[in-house]
Structure formats: C-alpha cells, structure tokens
Design a protein that fits this description.
Largest interface: A-B, 80 and 80 residues
Keywords (chains A, B): Aminotransferase, Transferase
Protein name (chains A, B): Aminotransferase
GO molecular function, one term (chains A, B): transaminase activity
Oligomer: homodimer
Number of strands of chain A: 12
CATH superfamily of the largest domain in chain A: Type I PLP-dependent aspartate aminotransferase-like (Major domain)
Number of helices of chain A: 14
InterPro entries (chains A, B): Aminotransferase_I/II_large, NHTrfase_class1_PyrdxlP-BS, PyrdxlP-dep_Trfase, PyrdxlP-dep_Trfase_major, PyrdxlP-dep_Trfase_small
Shape of chain A: globular
Radius of gyration of chain A: 21 Å
Organism (chains A, B): Lucifera butyrica
Distance between the termini of chain A: 53 Å
Number of domains of chain A: 2
Structural class of chain A: alpha/beta
Low-confidence stretches of chain A: none
Order of helices and strands of chain A: HHEHHHEHEHEHEHEEEHHHEHEEEH
C-alpha cells in the first residue's frame, strides 16, 4: 500500500521524542518540578524583542497582500540582500543577494542541498561523529550513502587521520556542524585549516571537488568570546546551511537559508540545482512573513547569556560531583561520559531519578549522553541533587 | 558537480514566471495600467480580517515560546482537532485530529503524499488534463511515472473512457483537482460517482487499491452556490491534499494539510508513511504561528464575491466579443479557446496588446490559454478593449 521505507521511518519515533513523551507522563505522576528533562533541543528563551516588534510592524503597517504573498522561489530579494550585507560586515566576506536561497529551516536547507549535489547512487556523504542523527536519513533520501568518521573522544574536534582514510573517489560531500550538536564543541581554526587542506588535496586527487556542507544553526550561540571561523573563507567549495531557529528562538517557524558562494566551482550551476531541488520537493518559497522578519532582525539573537549561565551551572555542578565531560563552547548541549560503557543503560538508570538524557549511540558516539541545557536554570539547579544520587548509585556498585 | 536533473529544473524557469517578469518589464515602458497581466495565480485579495485579528492576538496574548516553538511533526493537536470539527460539521464526515498531518502548503502536501505511497520505480500516477504542470515533477521526484489522461474538451470534466483505458496494474494513484486549475471546472457529483465506481472496479481487478489524491486548494472558491463533493464520502482510498493559500489568501505562508481518512485501507500505515516522507524531506513541522492562525480561522475565506464579479466581468466581456470558453464554476481561472491552433503563437500575438496569457500546452491542453482573474477588477475592464483588438487582428487574417 505504501513505501515500506517511509512507513518504517514514520512509525519509528525518534528516541528523543519518546523520552519527551515519557517526561510528560512522569510529570503527571511526580509533578513537573521533579522531572529533569534534558532531552529536547527546543529553545527555552523567547525571541528577542526585535522579532515581536518586526512582526507587529509588518502586520500593522505593510500591505497584507505583500506580507503574506508568494515571494520568488529564491526568497525576497531585499531580505537576501540584508543577510548578505550582515555577513559581509561581520565576516569580511563578499556575498550578494544571489548567493542566497531562503528555506524552511535547517532540515530543508540540508535536504535541498543534498538533493541538489548528489549525482548518482554511489555518491558518498561523510559525516563526523558525533552528528545529528537525521543527517543519515536526509543523505539517504537524496540517494547518497553515508560514511561515518568516528569521534575524536579527546576534544570532539575532527579525527583527521580517520577522515583522510575514509575519503574516496566517490566522496561527494562532507557535512560538519560547529558549534556541534551534541558535543557543544566548536571547531578551532586549526581544525578547519587542516580539514580544508585535506579536502583540497583529495578534491585534486579525485578530479572533482568535495563539497563541504556547513550546517550551522548554532553559529551565534557561543561562549567566552569564541570565534566560529566562517567556512567559505577557508574552502571555496563550501555550502552553508543556516537556520534562524536557535539564534532567534523561532524553531517552529521554519526559516533559514542556503548560501552558495561565488568562489565555488560552477557556482551558478550549484545554485540552479538548489532551486531545482527545492522545486521538486515542494518548497515553493520560505514562509513569507518570517522571511521579512529575519530580514529586519538579522544580527539579533535571543539572550545567549542565559544559555551561558545554564552551561556554567550544569558543567560546574557535574564536574564537582565527579562526572567527566568536555566543557561546551557553543550550542546548548553538554556531552557527558556515561558511568558505564552502555549509555542506554546509564540513561535508564537516570530515569530512576527522573533525569532524562539521550544516549549518544544515535549520534554515532556510544558511551556518552547528551544533555540539552536550553531549559529553565532552576531545573538545572534542582537536578544536581538527582545527578549526585545517580553518581552514588554507581559508586555503590563498584 | 551537481545533479543534472536538478540543475535543469532549476535553470528552466517556468513559462508563467517568465511571463510575469516580462510583464514587469513592459510596465516600466508603457505604464503599469496598460499591461494586462493574467499570468499568475497569486490571490489579489487580502486575508479576511479574522486572520489579522488572530495574528495580533496570538502575538500579544500567548507566550512567544509556545507560539513560535516546534509543534509535533503532525502539527498542533488543537489545530488538527479544529479542522476535523469544521469538516465534520460542514460535510457530515467523521474525522478526528489523528487523520490530519499539517504541511507547508499544497505543494508539500502533494510531494509528501506521493513520496509516502509510491512503492517502486514503475508505479504510475495518473493526472487528468488540464492539470497543474508541477504534478509531473512531484510524481517523478517521488519515483513515479506520470500518465496523462487527455482532456474532456466539451465540459472539462473527466474523459472517463480514456481514463479507464489508461489504468493498469501499475496504477498507484490518480490525482484530481477540483475546482480546477486551469479550467475553472468543478467536477460534478456524476463525474465523481463515475470516477469512484471505476477506481473501485480497477482496484479490485488489480488486487491493490488505487489511491485517489484530491488536490483541493480551491475547495471554497466556487460560485453560484455550487457544491464541491467531499471525496472521502465517495471513495474510501482518498487522500486529501489541502492548502489555505487561496481560501485565506496566505500563499506565501505555506500552510495546509494532508488528510488520511480512517476508511482508507491500511489507514494507519499510510499516515505513518506520510510522517516518514515528511521527515526525510526535511519538513520538521508546518510553520507554527500560521498553524495556530488557521486553527482559529477555519471556515473563513477571503471575499469570494470579488472573484465572482471578476469572473462575470471577464467571462461576459470575452463572450460578447466572440471568444469561446466554458464558464468557470470555481477557482479563479478562465480557460479560453485560442483563436488559432497554436496557443503559444496566440499568446505571442496577445503580447502585442500587452495581454499576458499562459498557453495551455504545459497544462496538457493545447489550443487553450489560461487567464488568472485574481486581479484588480478595473484591469479586467480595461483589458477588454485589448481583447477586442486581438479579436479584430485575427478577424482581418481570415
């Protein structure tokens, strides 16, 4: 009756979604304040005031037909120009409006980009563990084959030797995600430089460019004044997949973009293929009101200080107890070493204390668990007692 | 470097889009008021006041995190329940919230639905001419093969004998669109009854159900008190693909739904496959603010009387001159018989008088042209002089 594959994908709920539902059920039994749900990457902060101001102004003062009407498939020209200007000022780049294709958020950016560039069945897409699990589905749905580079467990940068080994003549693209979900790591300039050197060398060997897909919904969410290198400046064949979901706390509104820089080989052809892929997948245009909103709010962010306070509270609290983890530099995830090799079993044990954590296995990194700290700070504070109890439980077992 | 197919699709602009750009260029030369652009199906009316009220109320009085946050992939449960209630009251159906999957508009509804149900390479999808040209791309992108039933030139209903001949064991789905773009026809109860009888018979012969995909963004845009039969009541294996783009004049906001009725064979499996297809294509959820808006405005429409006045003005005007066309019963298109067999040549001749019309060829119906009358009524009035001149031009040639 239906595609068996689509049926399987639609009926197997993601582990994260299962946990979230479990948390709601537990909250009814023990009370919402006694469940410590670190499962979902749903921003806990409202959008900045500029977003609400832009919405009201557009609705009250602009003609409704223009505000809610179709834009071109590429997106509103003024909005794309505003994004180009902002990036040029911030990163000393040379983009113009026609480098941008507005999308319905990061997932759409990735699926459209992959559909555009994958040419044939055996094209390989390399992902770097730990990685967002949907990458695999997106690449496979576009006809590609996913190759996973094992994690650099020390610093959660890129295991460059492994990557070098895994690039073949079939390698079409490498997806990176920095600041990273789930590790919270930000790839350093050294990492990026080494990566780009490798990709240039291998592209030359292959006689066709390897596309670097930079999935960066967390670009602005970084701490301690850290810089996130702008990829197109390091590697010409970079496509940037961006979303405003996290920076502006608009995850449900589905708004982002694909950036195809002029520097890219056959840049015009890549951009046209992006338009073609968006078209066949039914993405007529990105939501028009929110295109205009992000155009006006470009450069604004939600209150990142709150996420930083959460990070410090959780990281310091867990380290004081004795847990091991790399200090997150960006995004709003902390990647904790489980207290036993089986992360799923550790998460089950955590549930005893109503701590909801996501096993790292689906991110390609067994033995770790992901904690989303885009939550209420008070919940983090209360959760530390539960984390202490969990620690004691494992201590007793030794 | 890229998928050749996506590149082709992205670089060949649609004929309609080309015309629209041409119209803008002409407007700069001869003045906006002297260009009669009937090319685009972009609603010329603002959304009903209820939409603006709902937007302002949601933004002012509901928590921003909930308004702009992720909904479940299926869509907000309250919104889906509101849609079910409305349809049940209006059409005496028995839907519930879990029959609905919210989408980013009609194109997304169709691409997701096709991806969900197409099982293998040689699955055939039948479309009835005249038809919306993107159907072909959507079906092919989902892995299907498109079979075109030639038009019923008399009434623009369905050429039932031809359809019967073209259904094979490989037929997976039939897409219909009533009220129809581009003909303006509404399929009568007789047409629907005959269609469903045929589909039931053929499904039985095939040993697997043929899915009827009802693409109905124009459901509410009908004139003269006409009823549009509700398909699930006539044929169990119907999937409804709906959009609020036209009914609420929100084409750029990308909001619609897929309805999988309980009556359908393996209904739960079909619904799960829809969820799976949406997931792999990167449709995380439908835009959250507009989900809530349509939930509140369900049953409302833009001012359809205006479209009716436009229809009457254009139809009566053209008939008075001597043109031939079937009177549109719904949507906002009039399908005019060209004054020569080559519709593209007729459209070129029209340009001489700054009449912008779309040849019917891409809709699978040569010899006709589509006029979109979702335009300013005054423009229609002024255009009639140009249509008279065009008529005279052909008269001279005889």
């Amino acid at each position: 009756m239906v595609s068996e594959k689509m049926y399987q994908l639609g009926s197997n709920r993601s582990a994260i979604r299962e946990l979230f539902e479990y948390g709601k059920m537990r909250a009814e039994i023990v009370g919402k304040e006694n469940v410590y749900d670190f499962s979902l990457g749903n921003p806990a902060l409202p959008p900045p005031q500029a977003v609400e101001d832009a919405l009201i102004d557009l609705l009250k003062n602009e003609p409704a037909i223009a505000v809610h009407g179709y834009t071109s498939a590429q997106g509103d020209a003024g909005v794309r120009a505003a994004i180009a200007n902002y990036l040029n000022q911030t990163y000393q780049t040379n983009f113009h409006k026609d480098n941008f294709y507005m999308t319905c958020g990061a997932a759409a950016s990735l699926t459209i980009c992959l559909r555009a560039i994958i040419e044939k069945e055996d094209d390989e897409v390399i992902v770097i563990a730990p990685f967002f699990p949907e990458y695999r589905l997106f690449a496979e749905a576009a006809g590609g084959k996913v190759i996973i580079v094992p994690p650099d467990m020390q610093h959660f940068q890129i295991h460059m030797e492994k990557l070098a080994e895994m690039i073949t003549a079939r390698t079409k693209a490498v997806i990176i995600n920095s600041p990273n979900n789930p590790s919270g790591a930000v790839y350093s300039v050294e990492t990026i430089t080494a990566l780009c050197k490798l990709l240039n060398k291998k592209s030359k060997e292959n006689g066709r460019p390897i596309v670097l897909i930079s999935d960066e919904p967390y670009r602005e969410i970084v701490y301690d004044g850290l810089d996130v290198p702008y990829l197109t400046k390091y590697y010409a064949n970079t496509v940037v997949c961006y979303s405003f979901s996290k920076s502006l706390s608009l995850p449900g509104e589905r708004i982002g973009y694909i950036l195809v820089p002029d520097e890219m080989e056959e840049s015009g052809k890549v951009y046209a293929a992006v338009c073609g892929a968006g078209r066949v997948m039914g993405y007529v245009c990105a939501p028009s009101l929110f295109q205009k909103v992000v155009g006006r709010c470009i450069g604004q962010t939600s209150d990142i200080e709150t996420y930083k306070r959460n990070r410090d509270l959780l990281y310091d609290g867990l380290r004081t107890i004795g847990y091991r983890c790399v200090k997150p530099q960006g995004a709003f995830y902390l990647f904790l070493k489980a207290l036993e090799p089986d992360a799923a079993a550790f998460c089950e044990m955590g549930k005893k204390y109503d701590l909801l954590m996501v096993p790292g296995d689906s991110f390609g990194c067994p033995g770790y668990v992901r904690l989303s700290y885009c939550v209420d700070g008070e919940m983090i504070r209360r959760s530390l007692t539960a984390f202490q109890k969990l620690w004691n439980e494992y201590l007793k077992m030794k």
